[in-house]
Amino acid sequence: MPKKLRIGVVGGGIGRHHIQAYQSLPEQFEVLAICDIDEAKARTVAETYHIPHIATNLTDLCQMDDLDVIDICTPPYLHYPQAQQALAAGKHVICEKPHVGSLQEIDELIALEAESGKRIMPIFQYRFGHGLQKLKLLLEAGIAGPAYLTTVETAWRRRPEYYAVPWRGKWETELGGVLVSLAIHAHDQMYYVLGPAKSVFARTKTLVNSIEIEDCISASLEMADGSLASLSVTTGSAAEISRHRFCFSNLTAESNTKSYLNSGDPWTFTGDTPEIQAKID
Ligand SMILES: NC(=O)c1ccc[n+]([C@@H]2O[C@H](COP(=O)([O-])OP(=O)(O)OC[C@H]3O[C@@H](n4cnc5c(N)ncnc54)[C@H](O)[C@@H]3O)[C@@H](O)[C@H]2O)c1
């Protein structure tokens, strides 16, 4: 039986969902501490989830010898320095998206991770949806064949209240617009299936809300595997959907369109011939 990992969560917003997830796996994880600069919030989270330790700064959390993992759920501009600090303190790091704001910072974190002997794990929870996993299985079984064309739509709605939170909507604190924030999961799902892009052309605009960062994107990609992909993102869609459509030579894979659950079931897989369909089924 592997050792139970003892966790400290930093940030009591989405961090609450992380705590619920750990507590649903009590044989593997134990949440020992919650840290938030807002002490009242930290206290409420601790009381709600029966967490024994409260901290109001990361340094205190890093000094807890009994913690194995620090889970960073703070605003984006803090992820890079906090991940560095937690690694330097000898902890594994789980970190919310966007992990950092540049490739250079990712390279630096990869180097620090290697030196530390610990792991950094970014949050890409949509990868684990059962629909997307079925597509991965079909690929691994060699049934899909080469990719031709992929389309990814992230059409959500965000109003001014969403951007009233001080860190949102600004380059310095959110680190980017919908590309690094809201659509990061949908695009990660595509890279998870197809691998990296070879070249990208995109038009980005701020059309929906009065913010610094972009909120609409139309992008055209050539993937390293030679296939093409088309991505669209907006926060101005009254009808919210997320949609993936992958055309491979042997099959077309289509996600459901539930905006925040589209990597889960149901997905449809249409074979190009009855024989391929039989293999898929
Ligand atoms: N994976 C997902 O689907 C998903 C969903 C929502 C948010 N997120 C990401 O999670 C991160 C947090 O988002 P949120 O919606 O919870 O934001 P939030 O503003 O609701 O919560 C952030 C919390 O961090 C605390 N905080 C700020 N500075 C701190 C510091 N220096 N030390 C300790 N605590 C500090 C704040 O007081 C606040 O309670 C963002 O990067 C966001 O993009 C990811």
Summarize the structure.
By secondary structure, the protein is α/β, with parallel strands linked by helices. Helices cover 29% and strands 30% of the residues.
Description:
It is a single chain. The chain is α/β, with parallel strands linked by helices and 281 residues long. The protein is built from nine helices and 13 strands. The strands form two sheets. The protein has a seven-stranded mixed beta sheet. Strands 3-2-1-4-5-6 form a six-stranded parallel beta sheet, with helices on both faces. The radius of gyration is 20 Å and the shape is globular. Nicotinamide-adenine-dinucleotide is lined by residues 10-14, 35-38, 41, 58, 73-76, 78, 96-97, 123, 125, 165, 181.
- Percent strand: 25-35%
Ligands, ions, cofactors = nicotinamide-adenine-dinucleotide
The end-to-end distance, rounded to whole angstroms, is 36 Å
DSSP summary: helix tally: 9
Averaging pLDDT over every residue, what do you get?
Answer: 97
Poorly predicted sequence stretches spanning 5 or more consecutive residues: none
**Helicity, in percent?**
25-40%
Cα-atom radius of gyration: 20 Å
Query: Sheet with the most strands?
Result: 7 strands, mixed
Keywords:
281 residues; alpha/beta; 9 helices; binds nicotinamide-adenine-dinucleotide; 7-stranded mixed sheet
Question: What is the fold's blueprint, element by element?
Answer:
Layout: E1 5-10, H1 15-23, E2 29-35, H2 39-49, E3 53-55, H3 58-62, E4 69-72, H4 79-88, E5 92-95, H5 103-116, E6 120-122, H6 130-140, E7 147-157, H7 171-174, H8 184-194, E8 197-205, E9 216-223, E10 228-234, E11 236-248, E12 251-254, E13 268-271, H9 274-280
Parallel strand pairs: 1-2, 1-4, 2-3, 4-5, 5-6, 7-10
Antiparallel strand pairs: 7-11, 8-9, 9-10, 11-12, 12-13
The site of nicotinamide-adenine-dinucleotide has 22 residues, from loops.
